[in-house]
Amino acid sequence: xxxxxxxxxxxxxxxxxxxxxxxxxxxxxxxxxxxxxxxxxxxxxxxxxxxxxxxxxxxxxxxxxxxxxxxxxxxxxxxxxxxxxxxxxxxxxxxxxxxxxxxxxxxxxxxxxxxxxxxxxxxxxxxxxxxxxxxxxxxxxxxxxxxxxxxxxxxxxxxxxxxxxxxxxxxxxxxxxxxxxxxxxxxxxxxxxxxxxxxxxxxxxxxxxxxxxxxxxxxxxxxxxxxxxxxxxxxxxxxxxxxxxxxxxxxxxxxxxxxxxxxxxxxxxxxxxxxxxxxxxxxxxxxxxxxxxxxxxxxxxxxxxxxxxxxxxxxx
Length: 316
Fold this sequence. Notes:
Number of helices: 8
Distance between the termini: 39 Å
CATH class: Alpha Beta
Shape: globular
Radius of gyration: 19 Å
Largest sheet: 6 strands, mixed
Structural class: alpha/beta
Number of strands: 11
CATH topology: Purple Acid Phosphatase, chain A, domain 2
Number of domains: 1
């Protein structure tokens, strides 16, 4: 059993109060309509769930070593808040680093033991709406674990493919995987785990999705600055985002563990989302308008940009 320090307990108590205040304001501000014009989604990033095989003290510095031990209660706090909102959140998306590294390179190990993958699945099973996880660098381990094993485990444990698209209520939601290109292949001369790339097959798939010209949200783990702009002559993620920027509503990324507003540097609006690992209030609540094909970032004014943190809703 994990024993919480006074500081950790105070943090969790504050999160409980924040949840109550958020529910109150959400009920007043979130639009609801009889004709189903509006609906709401939640975006979460960098949850970093661990298990009993995790070796304490493995992180870089005090903050990281403290936060990793609180990833489960913080994601549960975020989940319980999201579940409580009315009008209800209808879809949730996790933008990578769903769990934290691999305790074994043996595929069967994950079916003989209860691991961080099972713990992560148990938490999302408690969401009252579908949850769609995407891949982060900690969901892979490209230096030591074959990517095919990671893809196989994601499919077996979460019923999730390496990349995917969801069409829902006139909008499209695309999970892009920046770990399938040559920079993430340890056998390739381009290998550099700090730089993302998609690979030719995924890039063609993505263009086919964007070419449908639906209002589209693009989710990818690495921020765009850390992804190869062009992988094949002038063909890459950056060029596709600019080509289809008129129908791309938002690009949302994780990885940096802090809130960033990258503006329209790459064409569409690009936000970096902070991590629930550090703050249970670190999520994006979005209201989508089917009539105008537009969206609203409901808790944008509460975000402490360039930090881990977001203020809770509070009574006016």
